[in-house]
Design goal:
Blueprint: H1 2-25, H2 31-61, H3 64-93, H4 97-104, H5 109-193
Helix pairs in contact: 1-2, 1-3, 2-3, 3-5
Amino acid sequence: MSSDFETYEQDFGTVTAELTNKIGRIPKLGGEEKTQLVLNVDKQLEEVRELLEQMDLEVREIPVQSRAMYNSRLKSYKQEVEKLEKDFKRSRIAYSDEVRNDLLGDDVGSSENQLIKLREERAHLLDNTERLERSSRRLEAGYQIAVETEQVGQEILSNLHTDREKIQRARERLRETDANLGKSSRILTGMLRR
């Protein structure tokens, strides 16, 4: 079952990489070409949603011990799709500099410097956002590992408690046996004296 999940993961990675590339190209296009690309991206987003549903079904069939790890991976994929959908919405209404200049004219002069600054700030913000998302995913994975470790620790403690009870019962039996041997020894000694 996990092999099916991993196959879906590979498909997901391929499709999302294509989507990211296409979404980045949308603002640079215009007219019919842009419309066709938007329709294509929309179709691929639907395909990604279906992949997520398939992965969700696969996770439900995975044994409970392994399910937490797959659930956290699935959750991060869902977040990635949400981000792609937001980027897609933004890209559909965004225009590249060339299209913007065609619409507004080339008399932007001093505002060109502002655009450069805005672009740099936007790139910086996007980098920071990506770093935060990666850190969040790492933290989430660390939390899942901690939860799994805690579960293993609880099982070990339970086993140790059971073993301790067995050892205590064995000691008790040894004491009883020792006492019975002492009595038998005294009886035999008494019998030998007679």
